[in-house]
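Summary for the steering committee. The consortium agreed at its last meeting that each partner would contribute one worked example illustrating the joint modelling workflow. Our contribution is presented below. We chose a case with several input lines so that the handling of multiple components could be demonstrated. No manual editing was applied between input and output; the record is shown as generated.
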Amino acid sequence: MSPENLIERLLEGRARPGPDLQVHLSDRDGPGLHDKMRQAYWWIANNAVICPYYDIEYGARSTLTGASGDEVVLHDSMSYSSFVLVPMLTLFTCRRALLVGGPGRGKTTSAILMALLSGMSRDDVRRSIQRGHPQLSIADLLGSPLPSDLLKAEDMSAVKIGWRKWISQRVKIIDEYNRIPTKTQSALLSLMAEGYAEMFDQYVYAGRSSWFLTANDDAGGGTFQVIDALKDRIDVVVRAVPFNSGFLELLLRRIEADRTPEELVPSEIVFSAEELERIFSAILAVEVPEPVRERIGFFLGQLDFCRMASPQFEAMSKDTLHLSGHTVSEVCTEQCPLDKKIHLCTQTENGVSARAYQTALHFAKALAYFRGHAEVEVEDLRQIVPWVLHEKLVPNARSPFFESKDSRGLLQDRVAWIRRMFDTAMDQHGRHEPVRKKVRALREELEPGLEGVPLRAVEERLGRVGKLIGELVKKHELSGPVYEDIIHLKSMYSRYQNYAHWLKQSARG
Amino acid sequence: MRWDARLWRRLVEGPARDLAASLRAAGAPDARAGAVVESYLRLAAEGIGLGYLHPPEVAPGFLTEAFFRLIPSGLAAVPEDARARTLADCWNLGENLEHAPAWWRRMFVRLLDGGASLGDLAALVERAGREAFGPPGAALGGRTRLDWIDLGAEDRRFLPGALHFVAPTVVCVHDRHEPDAAVPTVGAWLVDPPVVLGSMGCAETPGPASDRLDLVDEVGRRDPRAADVRNAAANEWRCAVTLETSQFIVVVRPA
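What follows is the complete predicted structure of the assembly.
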């Protein structure tokens, strides 16, 4: 490095002298942003939301077991509360979170805090919350044309819609979304899913934003069935935490101070629009190393497999069953030779969509960034995937897997169930790795493409792919991971075969 | 990071007062002096909040040196209309050094000790660039001298192994215990007198030992205690060797 370059680099920075003879510091960027994220997290966790436990835990584990088998696990590194952290990650990734839990647990407060962190004023936040109720109409939700415009207009384009202001806010809060009537839910779906709403041929765009939806307890009444497409658009679920009486004094002080945490959010933890954009881009830049991608693919990829779905190899998936109106529980019986205690496919009624994969990776990146890392670790995925898949994976409650006393309780706690499946998959990954390594090697050979590869080389590669398919079919039990490998190898085989066929035809022509 | 109220109070009651007094003594009008002191305090608060500033006796660092000693004693000597610029440069340099390898900070603290002037930070940086990253004046070839540098004083368990140059006069020495893992490293700046730079945070794998056997032999000839050479690295201007039985490294440089 030349001395001139050094000077240029070291003397440039955030501090600048102003005309008022003072030194002005601009906002921190880069590494400073995740300091600010952590600062915001700790302020909320220490002052605003009372969290009785931290359930996103890192570090080595030690387990304390009681006489009746109850376990308490202690970790030796940082831990965080999902109830605070997951909404924050939703804010930074511009995704959609559903906050669930009993009444009075802080679901709406959590969403309001996220809106305040994004720079909205308390008044704006209060006015922009959309509260679900059975009479909520599309016009109430989105806006409506001025009646005078409707009367005067000779053309649809002359009708001006008074769109509701909340639609363009950076943070959108829908309180008790399951009290919105089904017809109005469809209008909300369009906004959430497509990012725009339409009325009288006019459009309003939601822009890049984070959504926080809360769900009322079904037992309270006045609720509607939530349409599946709307449920499917939820990226992550946040479970409200119960109150622990050990914090009663804190509650008392809050009453006596006559101030709510929302009134006390310090300006230092409020993010500007520019900072939020920078965080969004920085999160996308966090790397997901190949060994980590391998592991998440290994886990999720096997969930869609169902050996009993079809005699046709390519159709052995749970989608095939659902399309024919059947369920996994109907076919996942002793007729299937796979051991239900070992193979994960028995535990779920469905697999995971490409959208869910993307969401899991995006949140894992956000979690890694929050922790100050440039790369995602497997543990990041382990921590965040249960929240992402909470409403997306449906357990096969009739699976023999859930018959044991140990496993039955998992049906009541989706987070514990999904995390247990993840851990099982990671154990299995090591045993399956020698096979997958061979598949990877063949894939890496194909990845640069086939242009310029001569026919002889293509046929030689075809031979190797075919040989590995044969080895997997003949020597390995057809489980979820093996099925994934064979399908992948078959796609490579088809590609080589097509190219070889084309080369032969071109030679003849 | 937590706010260090004690450090803040110490800074306000000590260096900040000294700065105000020195500005007044230099004849600065109250309003202007006030603007400078206010900027100094705001930057210091930012520095304490971010963990850049520490008690000087606990952890010397560039910004700590600057805010506790250099600025209070030297800013008044800077022309009035350049004081804000100087404060800004000082902060930027310090903050950039906080994000640079730790050994850069040690290098700059050493340069400050050598009597650097606050009024010309560009010259300080240029000197660092020249002396650390630029080629030194004389190449090896004529008369030479040997320096013995004790790396054990930095880390009592450190046992020098392989080494390599990261700049013309900066050598990075790797601990010999675990060659394949992330090993501790200690650096040295081979100037007069040499400066131990502390942990280098180096993740590189040193290359093969230098083939400048003439220099290696010279070390052993000049000082029999340095005959059991373990590893060596050399460039045009410096040669450094580690020894089998010592925590010292021996450096050959032009006399």
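The interface with chain A takes residues 1, 32, 35-36, 38-39, 42-43, 46, 50, 83-85, 87-89, 91-93, 95-97, 99-100, 121-122, 125-126, 128-130, 133-134 of chain B (CB under 8 Å). Chain B has two domains: 5-133, 144-254.
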